[in-house]
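Hey,
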Amino acid sequence: MKTVRIAELKSRLSEHLRAVKRGETLTVLERDTPVARITPIESKRSLLVIRPRPARPVPLADIPLPRPLTTKTDIVALLLQERGER
């Protein structure tokens, strides 16, 4: 198992990650104190990516609009009142 200090890990991250891909385990040190361990993933299975089917665009005319508001309250006045209190 190889040890590496945080500063070195940051400056040569790609190189250290390639070593982990090859099966090496790294122990990360902060002032000579182990704080983390980087190990290769054990599973050799490849990730299966399933792409979504292309969706048909819906014309705007086919999207139903909400029902009209049936309240007698002045929404704009309420909004201005709320904003004025801030």
